Amino acid sequence: MKRRDFCSAAVATLATASLAGWRSARAAEVTAVDLEGKPVTLKGAEIDELRTLMRGELLVPGDEHYDAARRLWNPAFNKKPALIARCAGGADVVRAVNFAAGHRLLTAVHGGGHSLSGQSACDNGIMIDVSPMRGVDVDPLAKRARVQSGSLLGFLDRESLAFGLATTVGTVADTGVAGLTLGGGVGRIGRRFGLSCDNLRSIEVVTADGHWQRASLEENPDLFWALRGGGGNFGVVTDFDFQLHEVDPHMYGGSIYFPLAGGRQLLRHFADYIAQAPDELYVDINFETDEKMGHVIEFDVCYSGPLADAPRVLAPLRKLGKPLKDELAPASYLTLQGSANTPGFARFAAYVRGGLIAGLSPELIDILVDTMEAAPSNMLSVWLQHQGGAIARVPVDSTAYWGRGSSHNMGLAGFWPVGGAEAGPNTEWVRSAWAKIEPLTHGQYVNIANSDEREARVHAAYGDHYARLTTLKKRYDPDNLFRLNANIKPA
Question: How much is the pTM?
């Protein structure tokens, strides 16, 4: 026998033996839950058939990679799906969606796993995991980027900046591009170029009927409208096509810290300053406690205009008071984005509530300062992400994203080490503080919506678009298969 024939025969024999043993090992039934929470039995043969059809992995509890695959960015959640379909491409997504719909399984969709409310996974259902799909292809001549739905925003930043191009993608580098974009997508250059969803040319998605579809202004325009701000309600996205913009990779920014004491007057002056800010200036506000500096107000700055203009534009910010620390300086956009840091999980568990505001009113400033002055732990914070500019100039009816008139989206967070005793008190602090702040908000940013939100709060995230979204939900997902999100119920 020739060596090549011997090797082929040996490989075939080993593969057959391995397959036989594998099939025998996988023959056990799995108990899952359906969309109503009732138990459903998945036969071993059905699971084996799906596994055979997929290029990616199909995992069940006890498999070698199961625990790593189910891990979420926020370690406050420890969900254990009955099945994890780790998709290698669009065909795997089609098969996983068909399997989920055919068995009416509770279904979670996992991209970057960054869902603050833990809805990227589920207990005893199926998790459709697109995180292995991380391709980013940039066409520098067309200024376009094709991005698979498992990619993290740091990957897109690094690939596009190599060509002097960028688009709006969030502020935390290990955020998933898919979840961020479907909910809107606020970022450091959003005031200049619009939301992440405003920069989409097309989306490829598998809807609840298991069909792959392309959505754009020309194809399935209603679906395209809904996907740009409607969250994960309408299907599992496989690919995004983004418009990129020419940028100078060298910008100006960083953080400047002021003491919380005297913060009321400081923030009143800041509100006047930031209301006149050019589109190129983005300033987040963070209230937090530093081990050395104590209670502080941090301004996180990104100025993407001409570098020579930065000192003049930021001079009023520096004159608000005597800073405890001033780290503002020329910096690469990749550094400001933290794009080299994509661990995919947080060091601390978190509980978050949030909403949209129309401006920094004196009443809101007083409540925020009072709240942080009384914070019983250094593991509590409040942040305000900067909107306005180009975001506000996009006609509100052109996409499902509702909060275009907002100046900021705001979040309150309590953190704790995994398993730590601080979980209860810090969660209660967030809820108590939020009860005082919520009346000053109008709706919320879909990407911060919590799983324990009142239904009225979810409606408020979509504003006057909610009725149209429920009609489209009935068309594309009548059984509400995709419900683990800021959920829109079918009309």
Answer: 0.94
